[in-house]
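Curious: why this fold?
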Amino acid sequence: MFTRGLRLLFTLLGKSTGEPQKFAPKRRLWAIPLLLLHPASWALLGVLYLGYLAYAGRVAALWGWFVGSFFLSIVVMWTVVVIALYRLRRKRSRVAGA
């Protein structure tokens, strides 16, 4: 869900997602309402707001654990991706150098 929302955001900003662009830059404005209606946008905003409330101490400690585990899962996923890309580049350089 989050990756689809991010892909839509990157498309609106004109950034490459690795896929060929299907629409001209001026013809992408129709997707703005879709981004606003996408549930990932609202879920991410909700978690960020809940994180702010947990940091400010305005919610119960259980919600703080929920928000902390959400952000920790993002950190773990990025760490796994960085390690996998590092290993892939290292493997490619060994093949190219041999």
